[in-house]
Amino acid sequence: MNEYVQQYFTAKYWADLTTDFWQALHTWKFYKELIIMTAGMCIGAAAVYYFLLPGHLIVGTISGLSLVLNTLFGGTADTFSYWVMGINAVLLLMAFFLIGNEFGAKTVYTAMILGPLVQILDRVYPYTNLTHKVIEAPEILAQLQAGETVLDMHGNPYLLSRAGEVLEQVKDSVMSAGLGLGDVWFDLACFVFLVSLCQTIEFSINASTGGLDILAKIINKYFHFDIGMSVTIGGAAICSSAFLINDFRMVVIGLIGTWINGIVVNYFTATLNRRKRVCIISKENANIHRFIRDELVRGCTLYNVTGGCSGEEHTEIQALLTQDEFSALMNYIRTNNYYAFVTAGNCSEVYGLWARHKKNRASGKVELSAEDLKDIENARKC
Q1: Distance of alpha carbon 66 from the chain centroid
Q2: Tens digits of per-residue pLDDT, 74-100?
Q3: Does domain 275-350 have CATH number 3.30.70.120?
C-alpha cells in the first residue's frame, strides 16, 4: 500500500500521465467521449434544475449530506458551500486513488460543468416559467427591488425576474397542477428517470457525475455489487442521515426514490450493454462459421454435440453478437435457406477478449492484440 501511494509522488508517474494525456488528445475516442459526457451532463442538469430544485426533493446526494452536517454543526449558508466543496474534493481524490486516473479526470470534468449547465438552463428557460406567472404589482416590485422579502397569502415569496417583473407562484412544482395540488411522486419519477439515464451514460464510458456516483463506483469495484445496487447503497446511506433534520415523510420518499434510481440504472445499463448469446446447430455450420468470422468479424466457439433423439454427431456454433449482428446473421441464414436450429438469449455483461476485438477489426478479420495474447498466456499459467 505504501508503494502504491508513493508512485503518485514520482516524476516518472507524472511524466507518463502527461504523455498519455497528450496522446489521448490526438484520438477520436477522446473527443467522442467528451461529447458523450457533455450530453449526459445536460440530461443530469435538466433533472436537477427542473425537478430536484423546484420539487424540494430529498435524495441521496452530496448536497443532502452537506446540508445535514451543516445543520448539525450550526453552520450558515456560507459554510454550506464549504461542506459541499470539501466532501466533493475528498471523493474526487478517492476517485483518482481507488478507481483510476481516467475515471478521476473524467469525473473532474463532469463535476465542473454541472453548475454552468444549470446556470445556462436558468438563463435560457427558467423553471419559474412553468411554476410562476407575471403580475402587475408596483408596490411589491418596489419592495423586491429594495431587497426585501415579500410573501403571498400562501406564504410563498414573490420573485423578481431578470426583466424586472414580479413573479407569483401558481404551482408547487413543475409537475404540479396548482398550489396545494402537487404530488411529489410525479417530480420524483421524472427526476429519477433523467438522472438514471445520465448516470448510465457516464458509467458506460468509465466516468461519473461526481459526488454520490464516485462512492457508488467504489462500492461496485471493491464489493462487486452491480452498479445499480451500488448507487442504491451509497444513496440510502446518505439519505438516511437526513432523518436527523428533515421531515420523516420526505426522507422516506427520498429513500424510495434512491432505491428506484438503482433499479432504473441497472435497467438502462443492461439495455445499453445487451448482447445476444447465439447457439446454432446446422449441417451448413462451415458456411455459418465463415460468415460470423469473415463478415461479422466476430470470434465463435465450436462444440461437438450429439443429438439426444437421433444420436447424430453435430457441431454447435456459439457466438456473442450485438443486436444488429444477430439480425444480419438470421437474415443470412434465411436468405440462403439453411436449415438450422438456433437459440438466442440476452447477455447483459461481457468482459475480456470479446469487448476488445472491436478495437482490432479495421483489417476485416478477427485479430488478437498484444494485450489479448498476454492475458491468454497468463490464464494458461494459472
Answers
A1: 22
A2: 766 557 667 877 888 888 888 888 888
A3: yes
